[in-house]
Amino acid sequence: MPSFVGKYRGIVEDNKDPEHRGRLKCKCPQVFGDEVLDWALPCVPYGGDSGTGFFSIPKKGSSVWLEFEQGDANRPVWVGVWWAAPEDKTEAADVTHKKEKQSSGPWDEAETGDAKRDVPDNHAWQTKSGHRIELDDTDGQTKIKITDRKGQHIMIRSEDGKEKIYMKDAADNRFLLDATSGKRRILMQDGAGSAVLLDSEKGDVYIASAKDLSLLAGENLYIGCKSNREETVGGNHNVSVMGSGDWDVAGALKLAKSSGDVNIASGSKAAARTDDPLAVATETAGGSAPHSHGLSSGKVGQGSSKVKIG
């Protein structure tokens, strides 16, 4: 029997190994014509015990390199593949050197992460449908990136002082864990532009809504601050209290209006004044004279309201 030494070009005819060992049935036209060889064992870059190692099987019709153990034609081994023309340069290979599109806003470095890749240091693996894994050791651009066929991806940047984890889905919703020195933060943003930012450097929290923002508690809601509080309302400001209400002011209280009437209703009784609003409040509630620094109370809607100064 002749001995077959070296590599031979083969074509995958069957990749459904009944033993699930990664074996292939192939043709080797150069030597055996249209004959389908026995199951060819895989030669993989890493392996060991069952369940350990690298496992990736070429699809039917793929081009593979074949060898024969000790030259025996009955003991084929598939040792790798090649990209046949006209698809010699695949997208997986191309991704090792192409420049990605840069974005604007807080995602500049997080989304793209690099302006240049060095081919020898960027390792990519891509499936037929377009799922891709990149392991990039390019100096100053080290990262791991997992991308699905829709473009959704997870990226981990790991260069010293610029560590971050970034995620983006098909609807342009994004999430960033940024450990960059001097810029530590957690940022979440949806496709409409609403965002939540936790600034670890300053200790600040920022919430922005593209449209409405609602807070709803099943029971109690507590809002407090140790320093100043400021509210700016571009339109109307309505407050509805269904139960009782207390308003305690330890320091001075100033109520000012720029134009229009001030209306305060107690029960079914209402008053309208255009002068000092504090006087209106105390007189309508049946309390003492304006600026008396006493306790006044009255009904508002279905509940009651109290204003305490001092």
Q: Descriptors for this entry?
A:
single chain; 310 residues; OB fold (Dihydrolipoamide Acetyltransferase, E2P); Outer Surface Protein A, domain 3; five-stranded mixed sheet; 4 helices; rod-shaped
What does this structure look like?
There is one protein chain. This protein is mainly beta and 310 residues long. It folds into 3 domains: 8-81, Gp5 N-terminal domain (OB fold (Dihydrolipoamide Acetyltransferase, E2P), Beta Barrel), CATH 2.40.50.230; 91-208, Outer Surface Protein A, domain 3, CATH 3.90.930.1; 244-309, no CATH class. The chain has 4 helices and 19 strands. It has a 9-stranded antiparallel beta sheet. Residues 96-105, 109-116 and 268-310 have low confidence and may be disordered.
